[in-house]
């Protein structure tokens, strides 16, 4: 069995500390064999990233939004690890939801979500193949461009 912690290191991905909740919720919650994350934003050092990290996504800033989804997914994986203790406790990623703050003419939410899906694949390989929803919304907390949620199955205890 391959180590997801090793895959993370080999990919050069450094997981941040889990951001403290901005409201009355938990960043992640383990229930039985599943971990659910709260929505994670594209935060680096506690701040929204500059490019693609604020406001509605438009066609001309697609690449920045894909990167923002990747960063939000890194934060979601950090929340998973926090609840599991180690990524090696994860059996597979079950579901990924990506919310994209979208201008009315923007219809490429699925492409933005690929930034998060690709990151999950880098870490979890075949066990990262997931079902997914990519949802366009009018606005997100802190005027973020994307928000990512994960559901993962874990080794039963």
Account of the protein in words:
- The chain is an alpha+beta fold and 157 residues long.
- The chain has helices at 4-10, 62-84, 109-124; strands spanning 28-31, 34-37, 43-44, 47-48, 90-101, 131-137, 146-154.
- The chain has a single domain (4-11, 26-154), classed as 2-Layer Sandwich (60s Ribosomal Protein L30, Chain: A).
- Helix content is 29%, strand content 25%.
- Strand 3 and strand 4 (47-48) form a beta hairpin.
- Helix 2 (62-84) packs across helix 3.
- The chain starts with a helix and ends with a strand.
Which structural traits does this protein have?
157 residues; alpha+beta; 60s Ribosomal Protein L30, Chain: A; 7 strands; five-stranded mixed sheet
Tell me the major beta sheet: 5 strands, mixed
Share of helix among residues?
A: 25-40%
Average pLDDT metric? 92
- Total helices: the number is 3
**Structural class by helix and strand composition:** alpha+beta
How many structural units, i.e. domains? 1
CATH-level-2 architecture: 2-Layer Sandwich
> How far apart lie the N and C ends?
18 Å
Kindly report the CATH topology.
Answer: 60s Ribosomal Protein L30, Chain: A
Strand content: 25-35%
**What overall form do the CA principal axes indicate?**
globular
How large, in whole angstroms, is the Cα Rg? 15 Å
CATH class: Alpha Beta
Per DSSP E runs of 2 or more residues, the count of β-strands stands at 7
Largest beta sheet: what is the strand line-up? 1-2-7-5-6
CATH superfamily: RutC-like
């Amino acid at each position: 069995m391959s180590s997801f912690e090793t895959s993370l290191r080999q990919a050069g991905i450094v997981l941040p500390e889990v951001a403290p909740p901005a409201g009355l919720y938990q960043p992640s919650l383990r229930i039985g064999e599943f971990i659910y994350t709260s929505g994670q934003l594209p935060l680096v050092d506690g701040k929204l990233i500059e490019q693609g990290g604020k406001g509605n996504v438009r066609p001309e800033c697609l690449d920045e939004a894909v990167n923002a989804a990747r960063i939000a997914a890194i934060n979601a994986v950090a929340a998973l690890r926090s609840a599991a203790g180690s990524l090696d406790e994860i059996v597979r990623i079950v579901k990924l939801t990506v919310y994209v703050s979208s201008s009315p003419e923007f219809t490429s939410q699925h492409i933005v979500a690929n930034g998060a899906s690709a990151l999950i694949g880098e870490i979890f390989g075949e066990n990262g193949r997931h079902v997914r929803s990519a949802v366009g919304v009018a606005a997100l907390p802190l005027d973020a461009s994307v928000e990512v949620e994960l559901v993962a199955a874990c080794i039963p205890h």
